[in-house]
Structure formats: C-alpha cells, structure tokens
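PROTEIN DESIGN WORKSHEET
SECTION A - STRUCTURE
LENGTH: 139
TOKENS:
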C-alpha cells in the first residue's frame, strides 16, 4: 500500500528531532508494504526551510526512497477546496476566528485520499477532522 508523508514528518527527520528514530523505523516498515510518496506541496514546503538546498533535499528523498508526485488533478483540488471550506466553517462556529491552517495541509490530505494511501503525519487531529476516512499513521 502507498504511504504519503506529511511535511512535518520529513522536517523532523531533516532536523534530527528526538522522534527521528521512531519516524525512521515507521517509514522503513511502510516502505516494505509499498512506495513512499509526497505531494509536490510537501517538496515545496521542505525546500523553503531555512538553510536547505534543492540538491540536499533531492538526495535526502532519494536515500529515503521517497517519490514526489507532481500531478495534482482537478478532483484533488476540488476535494481540497471542500475540506478547507468545511474547516473554515468549523473554526468560525467554534469561535476560533479566521482559519490558521494553510491550503497545503488540505492538498496533502486530499492527495493521500485520492491515491487510496495512508498518510504518515505528526498531526492526526487536523487530518481526522478534515478527512475522516483517511487512514493515518502516527510514528
């Protein structure tokens, strides 16, 4: 089965955060069951990190056997827009004010759901609300 990876997971690995060994172990296990994939927006977010370079990021992804999916279909954009709109309404009803999530978060979830993949993330609450049928893995 395909596993899509959220930006926060790879960012934790790149930053050698304390949870990096657990994340690495989880990704190694998932890799045996199918490909590891990121959406193009994840690549862009990682590339925007201070001090990172395109060549370093490409090497990091290659070593981890993580493929970038650059294709975003109309259906993914529509699913993303509906989920983002629903999030905005939930936030307004709860008295939370303006949305605090960025559109890329919703693209990542819509992308994973469209592939029938699991999503590896460190933020399950957000994805459980936006995409309740999306299988999640928390390292």
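SECTION B - SEQUENCE
RESIDUE ASSIGNMENT:
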């Amino acid at each position: 089965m395909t596993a899509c990876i959220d930006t926060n997971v790879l960012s934790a690995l790149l930053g050698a955060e304390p949870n990096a060994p657990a994340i690495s172990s989880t990704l190694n296990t998932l890799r045996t069951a199918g490909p590891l994939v990121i959406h193009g927006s994840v690549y862009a977010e990682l590339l925007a990190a201070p001090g990172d370079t395109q060549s370093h990021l490409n090497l990091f992804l290659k070593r981890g056997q993580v493929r970038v999916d650059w294709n975003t279909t109309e259906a993914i954009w529509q699913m993303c827009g509906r989920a983002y709109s629903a999030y905005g309404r939930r936030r307004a009803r709860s008295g939370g004010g303006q949305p605090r999530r960025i559109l890329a978060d919703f693209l990542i979830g819509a992308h994973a759901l469209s592939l029938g993949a699991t999503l590896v993330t460190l933020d399950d609450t957000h994805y459980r609300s936006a995409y309740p049928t999306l299988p999640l893995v928390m390292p």
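SECTION C - NOTES
The domain at 3-137 is CATH 3.40.50.1010 (Rossmann fold).
The mean pLDDT is 92.
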